[in-house]
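Final paragraph of the annual report: two paired records, presented back to back.
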Amino acid sequence: MSSPKVKEIVNKIIAIHEKKSADYAKDDNPFSNFERAALLASWFDDPVDKVFVTMLGIKLARLAELLNGKSPKNESIEDSFLDYDTYAVLWYAYYLTKLAASDTIGRCCICQEPIMNMDYCNHNNRLYHNMCYHA
């Protein structure tokens, strides 16, 4: 015998799922938002970067659905843009925090490798490894 409370909770879950899925996923593929986000996340190695990219990817998937004609059933399109912006700013803050915690001061303009404090030439306000800058 099942509990009426359990049925009430499950029915709420179904209603929320249907409402949110309508905004985030393609009509013919309820997993499309996760697949899109996974593709973006696959481009990164750092696990925390992958999380940020996944969150951004899910917002992009929602925006793709809504900007291609679906009417929002949940939050507004503007809210999705603002959520996206918030995740991007949080990711940038994470990057800067991670950078500050290391001795890395940036990336070489030629080879894109991290530059340590004592291993660079600052020419025309651009960072280069001493071994990369030959002008």
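The closing record of the year follows.
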Amino acid sequence: MDGGSARIYDSTTATWSETISFSIRGAEKFLDYSKILLWKTDGEMVEVDAPAVVTSTTIEQALYPSPRNTIAKAHIPDSVTNISYGTFFGCEYMTSIYIGKNVTKLGGDLFFNCSTLQTLTIP
């Protein structure tokens, strides 16, 4: 399967997201597989060491002092195994995210209010 589209169910509000597209393919090439890479809406790239569990605090620390709604794209490396509840909550301008192949747990409301999310890549 190369990809398709999906809707994400929010169990807290009992609602479905708009349909988003996703692709499943081999690992993409990035400069450093141990870093979370964030691309901001102004084109700037931000890197942060990736803990095993990524939280909203991790993302906020990476962006400080910029607000989290400046994220346009995100790459979660293979070293991450868990993305916790609400990590990308309110990242309203994020259009794409790559989730590393070793992530085995995704928290609820992960993409809540990510209204422009178009691509979710899972290798």
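The longest helix spans residues 56-63. This concludes the annual technical report; the extension proposal builds directly on these records.
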